[in-house]
Structures are given as C-alpha cells and as structure tokens.
Fold these 2 entries.
Entry 1:
Amino acid sequence: MEIPYTVEVRPDTGLTNGKIGIWLFLASEVMLFGALFASYILIRTGAPSWPRGDTILNVPLATFNTIVLISSSVTMVMAWASLKRNRFGTFRMYMATTVLLGGVFLVVKYFEYSHKFELGLFPSTNNFLAIYFTLTGLHMLHVIGGMAVNAYFWGPGAKLWKTNPEWFTNRVEHSGLFWHFVDLVWIFLFPTLYLL
Amino acid sequence: MQASTTTDHAADIDKHVRVYISVFVALMALTIVTVAVSRFHPPVPIAVAVALLVATIKGSLVACYFMHLLSEKKLIYAVLALTAAFFIVLLALPVLTVHDGFWIR
C-alpha cells in the first residue's frame, strides 16, 4: 500500500504527513527534556549549596563539542540544500560529515565520562552529577539515534533518490529537523550544566 | 520548506546557503560570548540571565533558519504554541514551589 502525502501536501493541513509527524514528535521531545529541566530547577533551588559547573566539568571540551554540534547542524542543512540543487554527490559528502561530527561529539563525551568515572564521580555521588549524567546521557542517546537515521539516508536509504527524489529530499529534511533539535537542546544544556 | 519547492531556482537555494553560513558565524560568535562572560564569574542571577538570553538567541537562530520555522505553515505554529504553553507551565511549577504561600506545597 502506498504511503499517502509523502510528496504532495494534504489539502486540510497544507503539509506532508511526514512534516506534521516529525513536528508532533519534536513537541513530545520538548516536554521530555522540559520535565528534566524542571527537575534540575527544583533540585538546584532546593539545595543548600550548588557547585558551579566549571569546578567539576571540563568547559574547554564542552565548548569544543558545542562547536562540533553547531557545525554538524550546518552540514545537515547543507546536505538538504544540496538535494534541492540536484547535487547528490555533494549531499553525500555533507551527510557523511554530519554523521562524522556526531561521532566526534560522542568520542569527546566518552573521554569526559571516563575521566569522571576515574575520579570516582558517578550519578550516585551527588545531585549535580545525577542531573548532569541524566541530561547529557539522554541527549547522547538522541545523538546516536540521529546518527543512525542520517547514516541510513547516506547509505541504503539513498536508493530512494533514484526512484522518488522529492520524497527522499523530504525525508532528509525531516531527519534534519530532528538533528537540529538535538543541537538546540545542547545549546541550552551547555551553559546550564557547565557554566552556571 | 515544502516539497513543492524542490523546483526552486538554484539562485534561491544559493541565497538560503548564504544565510546558513551567516547563521553559523553568528552561532560561533555567541558561543564565544557565552564562555567569555562566564570567565568573569558574574553574580549568579546575572550569569543565569546572560546565559539564558544568549542560549535563547542561539536556539531561535537554529529554529528560524536551520529548521525553517520562519516560513512554516500555521498548523506547525499552532502545535508549537501549544507545546510552548505546556513547557512554560512545566518550568513554572518548580519555581512556584520555592516560595512559601503559593498554591503548591
């Protein structure tokens, strides 16, 4: 059975089904991270004292990761723009770079986590570390998910370009919306956890 | 961006690409500002205000340009408005609990 409204827009919504679907999903993601941010506020304001993030966490590494993730957002949108220009080769290059930058982010995070564990700093150590590991851990899972989808569109999923380029372009746009959301969450996580 | 715009002229897409590069430069600059301000160790209320302001500007740039929210359909705006309302309530709840005499406790 053919999936309806993948390329042409629905007359009632003015959108493709994929577009409205990804935005509804992102709305639920906002509430998921919102609940954790609310927990952070509650725990922090209720604590008699709270450490500055930069006394425990590695700010230069996190700044580097911020640059990496912002760069990956740019390469993601450039991948989509390349498809709009009918440049499939350029799309693959930008998409590969996006996935690679996601990998760099994860490697840096691995070193950050490893260092904390070596120092005996675990989620059970105190509330600051509990909320730090929960928020950044959940964010990392999103990075891994986004990388998997992007890698699929770079590899086997790219076959769709030959048969239905407009649908493929829309799918890349939707995976891009998720990737930008992951970047957006990090933009708030970085100052909240590392700098305040 | 809708599927129908796949046939956009290359010039239009080139214009978009130039905007993406400008937004990228702005995001990098704002990241430097965030880190630089924190180096001065301002009082917590000022640090929070500056960090959240800069993060909000950066987030808006990502949403408006990379996620193309500037040119979206009304239904998407409606979904996001509803989400924003619930998000604000969610964040307001813990803030209200820290003051005695409020309706929560």
Note: Chain A is about 80% helix and 0% strand.
Entry 2:
Amino acid sequence: MLEVRDIRKSFDGFLAVGGVSVKLDRGRIAAIIGPNGAGKTTFFNLVTGHLKPDAGRVLLDGRDITGLAPHDVCRLGMGRSFQRTNIFPKLTVHENVQAAFLSHRGRGRDLWSRVERLYREETEGLLASLGLLEHASETSGFLSHGAQKQLELGIALASEPSLLLLDEPTAGMSATETRETIRLVERIARERGLTLLFTEHDMEVVFSIAQRITVLHQGLVIAEGTPAEVRADPQVRRVYLGERQ
Amino acid sequence: MGLLARVPWGLVILAAAFFVPAVGSRFYVFLANDIVIWALFATSLNLLVGVTGLVSFGHAAYFGIGAYTTGLLMKKLAVPFLLAFPAAGLLAGGFALFFGFFCVRLTRIYFAMLTLAFAQIVWAICFKWNEVTGGEQGMPEIPYPDFDRIAALPLLGGWRTAEYFYFLTLIAVAVCLWLLRRIVGSPFGRMLTTIRENAERAEFIGVNVRRYELAAFVLAGAFAGLAGGLFGIFNRGVFPDFAYWTKSSEVLIMTLLGGMGTFYGPALGALVLILLNQQITSYTEYWPFVLGVILVVLLFVFPGGLAGAAQAAARRLGGARRA
C-alpha cells in the first residue's frame, strides 16, 4: 500500500528526517511515535507532498509519488488530517464535507450547477456516521474542538481515500473525547477497509489500536515492530517511554 | 423575514432601474448609468477579494484594457458594439491570464503588489503609446452603438441616444451579474470559497489552488473588461487613468463599503459611493477627506460593509421578533 524508502529532509542544516523507511500493508493500522521534535509531522508532510524530500522515495500502491503536489497526492487516494485543526471555519459543517465530495468527484470545474443541491445524501450519510448530523447547519468554526477534529476526519473521508494519515487525531482533547474519537476512527477504518497511519502522543491510544509501531527519535527510526516488541525494546524504553514514567 | 427573503430583489431593482429615464432628468440617467457600470466592476473584483480571498490592487488594468479594446474597435475600425463589447471581455481575460499566471505564484501582500505592478505597466503603455491609444490625451469621441434600428421598432422609439445606451447597459450588466451570481453559487465558486477559508486544507481535498486562483483571476478580469468596455462609451472617451491605481483603489473601496461577504454588497457600495461623491462634492471640495473618514468608520464599525451591517440588523430584528 504505502512504502517510504530512506526519506531525508533537512532545514538549513538541521536534519529533521534522516533516512526513514516505513512499509505499510493494505488494511493495517500503524502508528508513528516519538518525542516532540522527532520528525513525525515532517515525515507526514514528506509523504503527502507538502514538503519535497532531499532524498528517498514515496510509493503508493507501487506508484512513485515522490514530489507530487498535495492535490495530486490526495487524488491518488491519500486522505489526511492535520495536527492543527484544519477546516473551513466560516462554512457550515455540511458545506465542509460537501466541498470535499465536490472536489473528489471532479465537480470543481462546474460553473453552472447550483452547489447546494449536490451530494446531499452522501454528505448527510457521512455526517451521520461521524455523529455530526445534528450540527450539519452550524458554522463549523464555532464547534467544540473535539467536534472540529471529527469534522476534519469527515473532510478527509469524503475524498474516499484508501490510505488515511492522521496527525495527532486526539491532540488537545479531553480523555472522554479521546476515547470517543479513537473508537470512531477504529470503526470507520474497519468499515471502509482503510489503511491507517497516525501519529499520537497518547501512548494508551497507540498501544490499543496500532498493529505496527515505528519509533522516531531525532529524525531516525530507533525501533519498528508490533506493540509488544516496541514496548520491550530497551532503547525505546530509555529514550522515549522512560521519559514519561 | 421569510416573505422579504423570497422577493426576487435583483429583478425588482432591475425593473425599477428601467424607469429612471422616464421619471428622472438627463442627469439622473447619467448618474444611474455610471452606478450600473461600476456595480459590475466592483462585483467582478469581489470574485477575487470576497469569494477567493485574493486582494488585488490592480483591478483597473482590466477595466482599462476593456475600455481601450471597445473604444479602438468602435472608433478606429467601426466594429459594431455587439462584437466590440465581448471583445473587451476576451482581451481583458487574456491579459488577466498572462498577468495572473505570475501573480498567483505569490501570496498575500506580494500577490497584491504584483497585481499593482502589472496595472501600472498597463497604465504606462496606455499613457505613452501615442499611435494606438492616443497617449496622454486619450481617445475622445468614442461613438455610441447604432440604435437606429431599435428606435424604429414600435413602442421603443422616442428616447435619446444616451438613454438607449443606458437601457443597453442595464441589460448587459444584468446578464453579467446573473452569470457572476451563477458562478459564485456553483461548485467552482464553492471551491474558490474553500481557498479563501483555508488554502492548505483546500489543497488536500484535491483542489489545485493555483489553477483555481488563476481561473478566478481570469473571470474577474474578463468581467472588469466588460465593465470597462461599457464605461468608455458612456464616458464618450477612453483615457489612461482608467487603468491608473486610483481607479483600482476606488473599486476596492466600493467593494469594502458595500460588503464583500455578500453578492450584491459591492454593487451597493458602488451606488452609495457614487451618490455620496456627487452630493458631497456639491457642498465641499474636501471629498477625499470625507472619503477618508467614511473609510475609518467603515473599517472599525462595519467591518462587513453596509450589506454586512444590514444583515446583522435583520438578524437581530428577526431574533427579537421570535423571542
């Protein structure tokens, strides 16, 4: 599904990601963890085309997508949510998700149809599965932080991705919101057969749903394996998990 | 509220505008014609500023290009209006495609400054290219379209040429505004709104942000060109200052004054600014001072413009009635 080979990126001499490789099979759920500044978000930005790597390759379903623009990467079936909540704040909840349907189904070049009539069923169906239907006509910028994060997930899902990248899907959420969101993500990934790659700082979340975990530290992979393997890894315990205990 | 919202206000205002020559003097027809053309110019700018979130400081370039196109074709080549008018939109759109190609590669203030730079280049060319544009002296005596055949029709005879031109302007601008309205309300228009709201997110729902921005720039330029084409005839002459930066700022002020958050806001801004200008300059020569004060009040008290303030007031009234 996704294969990243020895990808590198530095900013003004600072090595942010130094030769990271990740391989992810279809339908799997994988996490990337690491302390702040480990290069997780940079890694995501390299995969989604927001940054161009200095070296290395990104392959999606065997196809080389290195250096493609984000809108092209998105069209090839990669969805993404951002660490900082990234929605269209003055549009309603319905319009946010509908916009993603419009773009994904290639209606953006239509200068004539009335936009409000399009993809109503699809949008409402998706909002219902996210539990956001009752907020459909609200201005999205006024939603609670947790609901905005869920909406962002909805925007990503409306592009009907086969691979979904979530950058800290529960950042800034309360414990309850975190649990709900994770249950939601897990359910949707299962229902849609999605391949999921996410970063997360909440270790409980990571170890509860990830099937594979990659640990980054200062831009390098220091461990990779199943949750049990990673938990047992002495280096991981020292540089990362240890810090939190 | 519900009943008021269902009235097709656009058609009502259009119908009322047709009666101006019947009830008003020549001067009012002149004023109304001026307003109608600027309403189109300001609405075209709002496709960039209000809908896409791109602030252009050089929108007059396309207005000027349109004016010179129609003017040159009608005066020097005797091309009929029905061809010379769309040509203004095509040529202005063509130039917008060329200039916009560079502009959309920059963001925010750099985008705005580049639009201004291109507009000043257009102005300089109009100002200096004596053989074609008439240079500093401009191009006076642009002929009116030929209304003889229409005047000969039953029921349509008896108006002055300027009044026929006013009717023609009304029809042309109404069609243009209707087209713009459809564009803003289309899926394409929604994609432009997502760019205004959050370009990064728009890119990652698959929107090629630069290409959509360029498309908006071309459309806005084309409609500004059509407004310019009408204005040259209305003004009985085309002059380099049509493309000058003061024209760009004037139309930007109208857009802000009327309110860029609504479709008809900029047209309302054109109406109010032109009427105010006309009233105030008859009392005092300090119009720029008054304009400055209006702008300051506007920016601090009504950031959504007149249309935005009216909407907020209507909401408050509606809310009070329901409570």
Note: The two ends of chain A are 35 Å apart (CA to CA).
